[in-house]
């Protein structure tokens, strides 16, 4: 029998105890995976661009900017492409079912970040067919059960049409999937010319501009130059990348990173104490057996490896279950809650699983390794 087989059989000697330990580890890894996924999504590491720039009103994103800014921004030689957008926040069916619609110029938006959003030529052609056509993100379409060709109704929270109603009707011309799984697709893309002509207030105004710098141009330098253009205007701007905005937005409420580390640290400290205490008790139960193994020629290092292998086996099985649970949660609710289980997060979680198994069994393993044979036999 190999050392691995012996460690596995020792782990399953008390099945209920082992299953409870695995469950504790799974819960700890699930907490870690979800919190790190939230941190990755909220801080922009899960799909937020560090290159694309957003130009918004310095007074806040709730304040609009005049469309006339477009030409002045596009005139900068370091701007590769620029587009604009007007947001309409509303709900479909019930008020808790919030839907975000971005009214844009399809062609200019495709030039700026069409690659990131996965806007193909066929999708853009579908958006051009009728003025009330929309493209729906894959995450939003799956959550709502919408399909191509379906006509949907959205009630805006604030934007009122020229007919005095806040109800807007759209026809789904296509579904965009984004460049990868981390891309936010929980929104719709509508035509600005349709929204702008049909709304009662805010005509020829936009919520912001999206700018792609030319290759080799520093986004920070270009952002400062754009803001300088409108520093003395009636509506000065603040230009920053999406990643910078998300980080600043989160910091307005609290240091999320510190809070998450404290929560995860408390959870792991508790789990670590449970594992150490349980493994120490298991080693005491097998004191006589450890003496027999040493008598048969098992080295101190091999005795230590057996105990560490047992805790590592429990940690890996429970940890993989917790990681699988975190992955399922991000797949189901990630787009809506901003969760992003990136490869980096998954790699860090795997390291934590191994560290938990090794650290949890280190003290019991050292005690078993240092136990004199005579003391082990006296335990009978």
Q: How many strand units?
A: 11
Average pLDDT metric = 84
How many distinct domains? Answer: 2
Q: How many individual helices?
A: 14
Order of helices and strands: HHEEHEEHHEHEEEHEEHEHHHHHH
For the termini, the CA-CA separation is 25 Å
Q: Record the strand order, biggest sheet.
A: 3-4-8-5-7-6
The level of helicity is 55-70%
Strand coverage percent: 15-25%
Instruction: Tell me about the largest β-sheet.
Output: 6 strands, mixed, barrel
**Unreliable sequence segments:** none
Overall, the morphology is elongated
Please state the CA-atom Rg, rounded to the nearest Å. Answer: 29 Å
Structural class: alpha+beta
How are the elements arranged and paired?
Layout: H1 3-11, H2 15-42, E1 53-57, E2 65-66, H3 69-74, E3 79-91, E4 98-104, H4 106-117, H5 121-129, E5 133-137, H6 138-144, E6 151-156, E7 167-176, E8 188-191, H7 192-198, E9 205-206, E10 208-213, H8 219-229, E11 237-241, H9 242-251, H10 256-285, H11 287-295, H12 300-337, H13 343-370, H14 373-378
Describe this structure in words.
By secondary structure, the protein is an alpha+beta fold. 55% of the residues lie in helices and 17% in strands. It has 14 helices and 11 strands. Strand 3 (79-91) and strand 4 form a beta hairpin. The two termini are 25 Å apart.
């Amino acid at each position: 029998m190999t050392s691995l087989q012996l460690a596995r059989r020792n782990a399953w000697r008390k099945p209920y105890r082992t299953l409870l330990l695995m469950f504790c580890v799974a819960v700890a890894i699930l907490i870690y995976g979800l919190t790190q996924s939230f941190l990755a999504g909220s801080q922009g590491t899960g799909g937020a661009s560090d290159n694309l720039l957003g130009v918004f009103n310095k007074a806040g994103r709730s304040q609009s900017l005049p469309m006339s800014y477009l030409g002045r921004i596009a005139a900068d030689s370091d701007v590769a492409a620029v587009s604009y957008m007007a947001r309409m926040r509303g709900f479909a069916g019930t008020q808790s079912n919030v839907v975000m619609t971005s009214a844009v110029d399809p062609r200019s938006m495709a030039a700026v970040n069409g690659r990131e959003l996965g806007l193909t030529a066929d999708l853009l052609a579908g958006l051009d067919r009728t003025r009330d056509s929309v493209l729906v993100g894959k995450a939003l379409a799956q959550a709502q059960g919408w399909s191509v060709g379906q006509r949907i109704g959205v009630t805006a929270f604030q934007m009122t049409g020229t007919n005095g109603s806040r109800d807007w009707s759209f026809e789904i011309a296509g579904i965009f999937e984004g460049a990868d799984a981390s891309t936010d697709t929980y929104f719709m893309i509508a035509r600005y010319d349709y929204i702008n002509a049909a709304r009662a207030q805010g005509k020829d105004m936009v919520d912001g501009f999206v700018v792609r710098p030319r290759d080799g141009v520093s986004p920070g330098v270009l952002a400062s130059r754009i803001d300088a253009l409108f520093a003395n205007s009636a509506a000065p701007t603040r230009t920053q990348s999406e990643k910078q905005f998300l980080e600043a937005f989160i910091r307005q409420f609290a240091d999320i990173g510190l809070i998450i580390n404290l929560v995860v640290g408390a959870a792991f400290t508790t789990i670590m104490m449970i594992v150490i205490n349980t493994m120490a008790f298991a080693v005491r139960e097998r004191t006589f057996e450890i003496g027999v193994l040493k008598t048969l020629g098992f080295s101190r290092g091999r005795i230590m490896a057996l105990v560490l292998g047992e805790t590592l086996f429990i940690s890996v099985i429970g940890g993989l279950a917790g990681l699988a649970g975190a992955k399922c949660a991000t797949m189901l609710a990630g787009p809506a809650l901003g969760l992003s289980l990136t490869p980096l997060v998954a790699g860090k979680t795997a390291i934590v699983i191994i560290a938990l198994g090794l650290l949890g069994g280190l003290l019991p393993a050292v005690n078993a390794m240092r136990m004199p044979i005579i003391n082990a036999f006296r335990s009978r």
